[in-house]
Task: structure prediction
Amino acid sequence: MKSGIADAPTRRATGRPLTTVEPLDTSVGVYRQLRDAIVSGRFQPNERLVEADLAGLLGAGRTSIRAALVRLDQEGLVTREPNRGARVRLVSDKEALEIEEVRVALEQLVARHAAEHATPADLRELRKMLVEMRRRVARADPLGYSELNAQFHQRIWEIADHQTASRLLANLKSQSIRFQYRTILRPGRTERSLREHEAIVEALAAHDPSGAESAMRTHLSQVVETLRWAIDAHQRQPGWLLR
Result:
């Protein structure tokens, strides 16, 4: 099967400053900065990661950059090839579907636990997120909505307090599928997604584990279906998601 955006253009990192959230004089700091940049979509799938450019961008030594790239390669976020350097790893269509299918199973479990643990303060925070998500829908801002969507799901992981599931989900999330396929760009998807999120919050507020599991399954099943649509659209018209 073809890859999602195998013909993605490459761009050098020079001139795109990153916000430093901690000192970068350690390999750990460099690793975290690069990982956050990839997971957030700052560096796109298949983009080259040139050691010299990254060293200048982060104000770090080449040794620390190289160590970070090795670790990111081990995590599956970066691909390193002899004599060709490193790139942000491009997830194949098959793997993308597999990742989302596993996510469906894990997030249903998380939703059950979140329904049992959600406090009034947790629910107020989720509802505030929904208010902002509605604003993004009204402004026709699907990419801004996508950012809030990720925060919404991560907040549910935190409420659930299931460390193993949360760790596995974070690893799946780090594959950055949503930046490669941009499923939220499907016409009408943000409106449907918003209704699905509202149903999840209603089930959590009712402290209904089965209802929360069902609402999450409905939502993520639609995500998988939309991913299949995005893959098919790309194969019929390569590169359309990059426009």
